[in-house]
Amino acid sequence: MKIWVKRDECTGCGICIKTCPFGAIEMVDGKALIGDKCMLCGACVKACPVGAIKVEGEREEKDVSGYHDVWVFAEPEGDGLKPVSLELMSKARELADELGERACALLLGPGQENNAKTLHRYGADAIYIVNRPELSEFRAESYAHTVKEMIKRYRPSVLLYPATKKGRAFAPRVAAGLSLGLTADCTSLSIKDGMLLQTRPAFGGNIMADIISPDTRPQMSTVRPNVFKAVERPVDGDIIEVDIDIPESAMLVDLLEEIKSEEPGGKRIDESDIIVAGGAGMGGPEGFSMLEELAELLGGAVGATRKAVELGWAPKSVQVGQSGTTVSPEIYIACGISGAVQHLVGMKESGLIIAINKDPEAPIFSVADYGIVGDVNEAVPAMIEMLKK
Fold it and tell me: What's the structural domain count of the chain?
């Protein structure tokens, strides 16, 4: 399909330039010109008041009737599963019920029996296990190869991945290898007209984009941790062991050593029930030392805004927000954080939000359950002193 401007009909009104969400149209010699950034969305075609923007060719419709079931790639961690795997399994159960299909899980590597039992508790009708020793350590190439072969063999309609380091590493390889769509970092999933409606932040978090994949199957998404709730819905499901040949070309990388970094406060923010987060209002790295003390007393973790991370006051691994980690702790204490929309997207689902800021008009107070209008350098030490007593 091609979209182009018939220059002798274009009046140069500029409406198409304002309409294009990708900035692909410019004015040249008083006429609109569509450039290489065009994503063929068709918004300009509908917006042109004189019909000067033409469409050449039609989108090819493909038969997707042979694809069924909602699948989740369940990511192991230690002796169990990452919490996001159970969150996705619960959502898959909900989506599958609406479609009248099965909710299924995919486990890769040996020693997955206990994880399979756990997934049955969270609604998995069927669990596919590829028990190959080559999958005991994560390699993006071997995981991508295995998932591609499973798709070809079982033809799922939907496949969800955790938006973790592993999921983000190999899901795009699956999409590219099979020419499929993939929506990254979804914050909402639903069914509309029998298709998966995938919602994610766009344009710096200022809008939420709804995305569908009408012509490819499976419909694939990566989903951030802490977006959905893990809900137990026990099912007496099947366990299906599958053997997939893994070629040498998928085993070119060797894992020599795994190094885990220490997080401020001693806990990971995506798994902590209490988070003490700091922003630019903390004034410097010494302010974050104060937050670490408060987090330790509360048994929580330290988080940070993007600005604080960019200033070097906190590591990237503790960044909360659209370009960081989405969190939903029981208690979120926002210290010196104004509340930019990109940050709010990543923490607004927290159970109890306490905000400390000098500015009574700071946007953070719009989502806070309790607010302290004041200096964090006075409020936080007072909290620390009270906790010590």
Answer: 3
Task: Give the whole-angstrom CA distance, residue 94 versus residue 388.
Answer: 45
Measured from the Cβ of residue 135, the count of other Cβ atoms closer than 10 Å reads 20
The model's confidence at residue 295, banded by pLDDT at 50, 70 and 90, is very high
Convert the pLDDT of each residue in 321-344 to its tens digit.
877 888 889 999 999 999 988 898
User: Under 8 Å CB-to-CB from 16, ≥6 apart: which residues?
Assistant: 5, 25, 32, 44, 47, 48, 53
CA dist 348 and 353 (Å) reads: 8
Per-residue H/E/C for 9-31: CCCCCCHHHHHCCCCCEEEECCE
Q: Give the range of the structural domain holding residue 321, as residue numbers without chain letter.
A: 264-388
Whether the pTM exceeds 0.85: the reply is no
Rounded-to-integer distance, Cα 131 and Cα 170, Å: 18
What's the pLDDT tens digit per position in 339-360?
988 898 888 889 999 999 999 9
Q: Are residues 88 and 42 in the same domain?
A: no
Residues 150 and 32: their CA atoms lie apart, in Å, by 46
- Torsion 114-120-123-124 (CA) sign: positive
92 & 195 share domain: yes
Kindly list the distances between the CA atom of residue 228 and the CA atoms of 46, 86, 190, 330, in Å, as whole numbers in the listed order. 36, 9, 12, 14
Q: Which helix (H) or strand (E) holds 199?
A: strand 195-202
> CATH number of the domain that 127 lies in?
3.40.50.620
Question: 210 and 158, same structural domain?
Answer: yes
Query: For the purposes of burial, counting CB atoms within 10 Å of the CB of 233, is it exposed (0-12), middle (13-18) or buried (19 or more)?
Result: middle
| CA gap 226, 326 in Å, rounded | 6
* Three-state secondary structure call for residue 304: strand
DSSP 39-81: ----HHHHH-TT--EEEES-PPP---TT---EEEEPPEETTEE
**Tokens 């969305």 belong to which residue?**
41
